[in-house]
Structures are given as C-alpha cells and as structure tokens.
Amino acid sequence: MTARTLFEKLWDQHHIVxxxxxxxxxxxxxxxxxxxxxxxxxxxxxxxxxxxxxxxxTFGTTDHLVSTQPHRGDETVEGGALLIRAFxxxxxxxxxxxxxxxxxxQGIAHVIAPELGIVLPGMTVVCGDSxxxxxxxxxxxxxxxxxxxxxxVLATQTxxxxxxxxxxxxxxxxxxxxxxxxxxxxxxxxEIGTAGATGYALELAGRAISSMHMEGRFTLCNMxxxxxxxxxxxxxxxxxxxxxxxxxxxxxxxxxxxxxxxWRSLVTDDGAVFDREIRLDxxxxxxxxxxGTSPEQVMPIDAAVPDPSLLSQVEQxxxxxxxxxxxxxxxxxxxxxxxxxxxxxxxxTNSRLSDLAAAAEVVRGHKVAGHVRALVVPGSMxxxxxxxxxGLHHVFLDAGFEWREPGxxxxxxxxxxxxxxxxxxxxxxxxxFEGRQGPRARTHLGSPATAAAAAIAGVITDARRIGDRP
Length: 470
Known about the structure:
Strand 3, helix 2 (39-47) and strand 4 form a beta-alpha-beta unit. A 5-stranded parallel beta sheet has the order 5-4-3-6-7, covered by helices on one side. A 5-stranded parallel beta sheet has the order 17-16-15-18-19, covered by helices on one side. Helix 6 (181-192) packs parallel to helix 8 (214-222), helix 12 crosses helix 14 (392-399) and helix 12 packs parallel to helix 15 (448-457). The protein is built from 15 helices and 19 strands. By secondary structure, it is of the alpha/beta class.
C-alpha cells in the first residue's frame, strides 16, 4: 500500500465525489456556528425553503458580539442584539444545540468545541471563522469558511473544496525555560512568513510537538492560518486521547476504546511524501513579540526593531516602513521599556486554563501599573469556573485586572471591548493588523506571561525578569 500523509487519509475518508472544475465534495462531520456569519446563512436557507440537514451535527455559540461585562445581556454594540437574537431564533427553530449568552457552557467556539468533546480526531470541522483550524490540534481537518459555504453545509452537510497541497513542519528540540507555545508559533511565522504555508494543509510534528500539552497545541494550530495554512493539524496521540476521555460529547466506555484504536491510525505513514517540508529547532525560539502590523513582523523580545532599509524585497520594505509609522516606532529601537496602555489576556489563542495559570504566576504578588487597563477574559464558562476554583481570579482582581465573562472580547473589537485610538496594547490574541483592536489601536502580540509582565511593569517587559523587579 502506498504510504500516505495524515491529510491524505483524512481526505480519503471524507471524499464523496469529484466535481467538474476541479473541486471535490466532502462530508462535514461537525459544523460550528456563531452569531455573526450564521444569521445570513439561515436567511438564505429560509428563502430557499430548506431545513438544516443534520442539526445533531451542528452546534452554535454566541461569542463575538456578546459583552464580557458581568450581568450581561444581548445588548453590546449597536446592531449586535439584532444578530444575537436572530441567531438564537434560528438555532431554536432548527433544533440546534446553542450555547447561548446565559448558558453554563457558553464560550468561544474554538475553545468549547474541543472542551466538550464535540470535535474528535479524524473529523472534518468547519465554521465561519478563520481560526477554526485551532481544533486541528486533536487530529481533525478543520478550516474556516464563508457565509455562502455556511449555508451550503447547513443544507447538505457537505462542502465543495479544492484539495490543498501537503506540508509538514517538523519541530525538534526543546523549548527553553520561559518560552511558551505562543512564542513558538510566533517564531515559526517569523521564520516562514505569513504566506509560508499558503495553499497547504499543514501538519505539525516533531519532538517539541509530541511533548507539548494539548492546550499548547491548540495555540499552535490556532495561528497556523496566520502562516497562510488552509488547515493545521497534529496527529492525535495519547496526550490527545487523555484530553478527550470523559468529555461530554465524546464516546464513553468500550466505544471510547474502539475509537482510540481507530484514531491511532491517524498518523503520517513512514515514507509518505509531502509537497513541502521544513525543519525547525524549538531551542532557537525565545520569548517573542510583534513590532509591526502583521504576525510575521515579530522578533525576540530583547531584540532591536528591524531596519526596513536592510530588507531586500521592495514589498517587505514598504510594509515594514508603513508598520513602523503606524506603530509609532523607529528602526533599531528596543521594545523593552516601551510604555503600554492596555493588556488583553484572552481570545481563542490564549484563554484556556493553562494560559490563565501562566499569567497568574507572573502577576501573583504584584499590582497592575496605574496607567494600564488590563483585562482577563476566559475562553469559556468552564475555563472561568476552573480558574475560580483554583483562586486565579483573586490573583488577577487583587492585582487590579478586570475579570470578565467569556467571549472574543478585545481580540477583534466587534463588541464593547476595544483599545482606544493611538493606545498601545500587549495582547495574547492572534492578529495585530491595523485597527484590529480598534481604530488606530497599536497591538503587540505576545504570550500570556509577556502580557502579564507588561501589565505589571506598565512597559513591555521580559516576563523572565519580572521577578527581579523590586
């Protein structure tokens, strides 16, 4: 039998029929919905007189537009309540499980789907959000889709797609002390660029991956799309199986054992050939921070801001010059000591329990600098409860952080959480585009530890040195 990559196995298992024009119809195992990209799809479904084909395979949550303030309701931003209520009515009408604003399991789609066992290894998973690849950390083939595709999946439980090329990045070595999965994925993007994996289904492998805990793997796969990957995934192993065991929607008892036996075949065969393969050394990664307006404009936290004139490509030079102007920075400067106005710890990248614990470890015993607004936004109600059971909320509240309800919050600034114009924010989210966190907001991406250190010091700080402060 010909050796196959993991992606080729996933493709073969979901292939229905090849279509004229080069596309292939594939079956979709799980469809995740939220309140921004779904109401229009439901409208289209209604106009066509169709029903949702498989409501039992479809799950909704309200995460983007919802307020993260205590005692919240539907009202959050102008027009937001309209979408939230329309989404609620549609999921109710079609019999779809909806983790609504007041639901005890509400949270960000990419956080609650694996947390509840909705996503399992070997599944195809789509959602009208570009960071759906997050759940590929469990060995699923997951990707973001547009509203028209959302409607197609609602109606047919299938999707027409073009087969991507295959790519593997093998990361061996070990992360140094104080270097986190977020630092590793930012380092990777800095090495290959935001177009480095464009057109590929990206598999992450190597000793640094196989030794990483599940929540770190979610962080890596969450940002694969920032390197251009259509989908990013990791072969499931015992760490993944232990994570899934006992979760609400996961198989139980003998069914779970049979599932694990099948999931063990979801690996790339020895001798399988990728269209592109790269090797990196995890030991080369340091704590990272972005200096520009793209995730690829990143550097070790103690490095100097690059000089655009030294870039060989005209496009990169122009982009770097524009980024420095937008960010209010000069070439050659150090970011260490640069004053920050806001800190955001949350998003589908870094809002899980281990992220909050890592930040709390830095914060414990310190106070947020007086001029900094600092938010901690758990990724789900489950994460929030678990963090509170460990007393983490007291660590943050005692230090002067705001402790919020779950939601996307300050990542995309489409609700009532945003960074003020011209203000500078260290954020654990995944994008630092111009205006991403609000008009003219300046965003520096970093790990939870880096964000926590910035909140305490009031300036960009190496989290490894925060304990040295008086």
